[in-house]
């Protein structure tokens, strides 16, 4: 199974496409995970430059967070997913639904995404993320029972925060969830937040070990299933995900350096 590791545009949005793409290639990533413009010409320009650089693409859809009520959220989801699939990425990573939508509403959104994926022949995976339909394990598990075909992006740092633990008390939850994972956001969270200050620091050792054990199991499951490719995106984000000092707001660590260091760890671990 081929392991492909992607650079998140999040935190680098101010960089022009050629500058960011060169930064990604120089660091040794296999591709880019990013949200694409809705303007077709701008979208196609980004995808062309990424392809010309020999990089793969995962499209992220997160802008539905700006639509807190159901009808506008559904309309935005359809527009954003059609636009994302039009770029023909490896897959689309979607922030879908809300934790306060009814189960029927969230299932309607998930079924909409499945239909769009079929139309375009592009897989759509749904991110485990606070405030989405998957924001807590007990929210997600009923959807997995009703929709066994559901495919997920594992960003389990969010569940660490939501459950105020490293999930050591929920082995059955993980056993039910990890077989549905098709993409990993390789960020390390802790019981009080979705991002440690520096995953290499000794105080982050337990949190890193927990996350690595989950990622190891996903990789094992996908290899056993005969998958051709598994994708991971180191996703340490800018402030306020990266903690800052009071008053000066100086970041205590550099998220890009964290992501490159995580890339190197993943290459060594899963080579």
What does this protein structure show overall?
The chain has 271 residues and is of the alpha/beta class. The chain has one domain (2-270): Divalent-metal-dependent TIM barrel enzymes (TIM Barrel). The chain is 44% helix and 14% strand. It is built from 9 helices and 8 strands. The protein has helices at residues 17-27, 40-52, 70-86, 103-120, 137-146, 157-163, 171-177, 205-224, 255-270, and strands at residues 2-8, 31-34, 56-61, 92-94, 124-127, 152-154, 181-185, 229-233. Strands 1-2-3-4-5-6-7-8 form an 8-stranded parallel barrel, surrounded by 6 helices. Strand 5 (124-127), helix 5 and strand 6 form a beta-alpha-beta unit. Helix 3 runs parallel beside helix 4 (103-120). The longest helix is centred in the C-terminal third of the chain and has 20 residues, at 205-224. The chain is globular. The model has no long low-confidence stretch (mean pLDDT 98). This is Sugar phosphate isomerase/epimerase. Residues 21-186 form the Xylose isomerase-like TIM barrel domain.
């Amino acid at each position: 199974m081929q392991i492909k590791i992607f650079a998140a545009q999040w935190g680098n949005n101010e960089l022009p496409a050629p500058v960011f793409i060169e930064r990604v290639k120089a660091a040794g990533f296999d591709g880019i995970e990013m949200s694409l413009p809705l303007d077709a010409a701008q979208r196609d320009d980004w995808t062309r430059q990424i392809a010309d650089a020999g990089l793969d693409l995962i499209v992220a859809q997160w802008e539905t967070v700006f639509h807190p009520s159901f009808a506008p959220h559904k309309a935005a989801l359809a527009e954003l997913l059609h636009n994302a699939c039009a770029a023909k990425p490896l897959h689309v990573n979607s922030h879908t639904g809300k934790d306060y939508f009814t189960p029927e509403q969230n299932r309607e959104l998930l079924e909409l995404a499945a239909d769009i994926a079929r139309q375009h022949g592009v897989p759509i995976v749904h991110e485990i993320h606070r405030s989405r339909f998957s924001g807590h394990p007990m929210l997600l598990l009923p959807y997995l029972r009703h929709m066994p075909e559901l495919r997920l992006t594992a960003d389990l740092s969010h569940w660490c925060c939501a459950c105020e633990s490293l999930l050591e008390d929920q082995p059955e939850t993980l056993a039910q969830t990890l077989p549905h994972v098709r993409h990993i956001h390789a960020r390390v969270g802790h019981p009080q937040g979705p991002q440690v200050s520096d995953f290499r620091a000794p105080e982050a050792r337990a949190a890193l070990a927990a996350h690595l054990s989950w990622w190891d199991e996903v990789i094992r499951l996908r290899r056993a299933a005969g998958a051709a490719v598994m994708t991971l995106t180191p996703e340490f984000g800018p402030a306020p995900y990266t903690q800052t000092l009071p008053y000066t707001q100086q970041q205590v660590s550099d998220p890009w350096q964290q992501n490159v260091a995580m890339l190197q760890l993943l290459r060594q671990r899963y080579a």
